[in-house]
Amino acid sequence: MSKPNVDISFDYSKYNFRDDVIYSIKFPKGINEEIVREISRIKNEPGWMEDLRVKAYKHFIERPLPMWGADLTKIDFNEFHYFARPTDKKGKSWEEVPEYIKRTFELLGIPEAERKFLAGVGAQYESEVVYHNIRKELESKGVIFVDTDTAVREYPEIVKKYFGTVVPHNDNKFAALNTAVWSGGSFIYVPEGVKVDLPLQAYFRINAQNIGQFERTLIIAEPYSEVHYIEGCTAPIYATDSLHSAVVEIIAKKGAKVRYTTIQNWSVDVYNLVTKRAHAYEEATVEWVDANIGSKVTMKYPSIYLLGKHARGEILSVAFAGKGQHQDTGGKIFHLAPYTSSRITSKSVSKDGGRTSYRGLLHVAKGAKGVKATVRCDALLIDEKSKTDTYPYVEILEDDATVTHEATVGKISEDQIFYLMSRGIPENEALNMIVLGFFEPFIKELPMEYAVEMNRLLRLEMTGAVG
Questions:
Q1: Structural domain tally of the chain?
Q2: What is the pLDDT of residues 34-81, one digit of tens each?
Q3: Do 298 and 328 contact (CB within 8 A), yes or no?
Q4: In 323-350, which positions are buried (b, 16+ CB within 10 angstroms) versus exposed (e)?
Q5: 2 lies in some domain
Q6: Which listed site, 292, 379, 409, 420, has its alpha carbon 20 to 30 Å from 187?
Q7: pTM given for the model
């Protein structure tokens, strides 16, 4: 039996639209210290934030590009617009949002999702959040869910206390860039003992060509609180590149539980270079559920520092790389306290010459007794042109630890296809079933509406037959 002859592609048409916008503010291309200071002045920020921005900018220009991971040498940082404000008005009700922006998010299904099952929604268009809302019953319990710009103005003591404590401004080149020019993002504060039963969501949309989007998200979960935050992102396709470089910081205090879910579906001209990190204190749980489907290049490794006894961390990372894509993803967990536990699960699919890379670190510090940790990496290659790499780092400095690592790389075999087709299943459906089954551990962790959407995104359009 000959090998399957298949052509595989995503239908991105739902997301590939753009608006003709007259921006209230749009900076020229390029970055310098004056641009950084002007962003702070436009936002009327306190002096400490402007000083931090400038300090971060100086570190950014001094820090070289990382020479490991994906090829970033073609990025020209002077070819991006670092700030674009589509409107001077942010809506607290959907009716207040400008019509063209409202139409964009309606096409993406945001208002419908909010009405159905979300506790709160934020929508960011280019550099700034244009809509934010949270259910009144959560507000009455002291939950804060606002864009980060608003948080700097209205909750300056909390922001100043935690901003940059998990991801310092000099952590890496792209964290420094984000700290210098950040705009938008979400700020979440959950008081002690409060459990947010429904997810909070933010959606990030790039519309214009050559835009840089640099949201900053900060989540603080006080002792024994719980929250689940979901973010999605898309952009139209252009002939030239855009840059998305976000920073996410999570602080989960004693007994708190935070889950952060991302469905990244950027267009294939976006560099997606993100730093995500969490601190989990005694008995706290942090979970990253991370999907990377779009972008030209993604470099993203959600990290958890387990800082207190019996803290728990889990990272579930999936990636899909098609033609011209490199998904360099994975996760890092640092066991810095006794009796902590963790699990990293990575799944990737490569097709049409795409490349996926798992890059992970599991660290067990001296004195962190009784650690239990598991790492599993599975990669699936659809064709002969595609590539996958695994770069696992395991550092164990404590004898009293139980650590397992398992990795597999496989192809869709002729036998699998033949078996399913012999049961009357067409070839394209058979391939879909195998890929969707491969990603099932991820999809089952999503709320139902997101699982349906994720299945739709992963449902490959295939033609050809097994000869």
A1: 1
A2: 999 999 999 999 999 999 999 999 999 999 999 998 999 999 999 998
A3: yes
A4: eebbbbbbbbbbbbbbbbbbbbbbbbbb
A5: no
A6: 292
A7: 0.85
